[in-house]
Amino acid sequence: MKKQRGQMSIFFALLLVALVAFLLIAVEVGRIVYARGEVGKAADAAALAAASRINIPLYRETGQVVFLPDVYDYAQTYADLNSSYLSSRSIPIWVTGIFIDGASQTVSIRVTANLSALLPAVLNYSRKYSIIGYAQGRLDGR
Fold first, then answer.
1. How many structural domains compose the chain?
2. Mean of the pLDDT values across residues 24-45?
């Protein structure tokens, strides 16, 4: 009987280590999922900002849908303002593309962020995440 004393303690210790590991993994996955949502929110805000920078006088004169020259700066500012979780962790986001579809009057913006800073340093993992935000406007009055 004496040989079996303490087996439950070892089993409990191993179980506790496994539970702590699963908890840490769940927290890290949650942080990544939340950060990806933040990038999406920033992309949508940037798309709405870019849609407001369409050259309306030019459209009224020619029917051509063109952005004003400051559209990238404007979109980047709104993307930055809508990514407080990422900026609090020193993770910059970049507006990497602005596109316009004149037929459907839709503006789409690609926003990219490197989320590898959210993972533990021992993983040495570089992961850039890009998402496209959309905004649709209504251009009247030609």
1. 1
2. 88
